[in-house]
Amino acid sequence: MKKILTLIIVSVVLLIIIAGILSFKPSISGNVVSNTNGIFVGEKNTSTIGGVEVNIERDQNQVKMVVEGLEIMARVELEERERKIYAKTSSGESEVKVIPSDAIDKASKISQVSSMEIEEYKGQAVYSIYGTKRARLFFIIPLTADVNQKINVEDGEVVYTKKPWWHFLALGV
Description:
By secondary structure, this protein is an alpha+beta fold. It is built from 2 helices and 14 strands.
């Protein structure tokens, strides 16, 4: 009886969390500018994305966004205009429409995120997410694989996945 009650409580909590994530709508505001030659953070160092507070910090020649405890380094120039954030790349500007938590959800090959950056990949701005995934080598030996996935900041599509060379020998990578 206790197991059934516990299962029901866990299911209800998960449904509440999923409903909260699905009702999460992005809205970006703030005043952040990063430049590859030098970095400038405007007077307003805090903005919001979908109602979640985003703190902007200057850290050793880089701009760091802190969202819900996750630090995101900007390796491209970021500009805030008309309550929207744009990432400048060699092929033009990309509007940052995908919030970091949605990008992490799209990174299906990563079970535990260790770091996240905004960078340029093949002319487009992407969230580069680094993390680990549990796997079983030869379907028996448990181990942890390092994985990197790149998620487009405009549409949230996975554009690149880097797995360990031995991923074809393992289950779960």
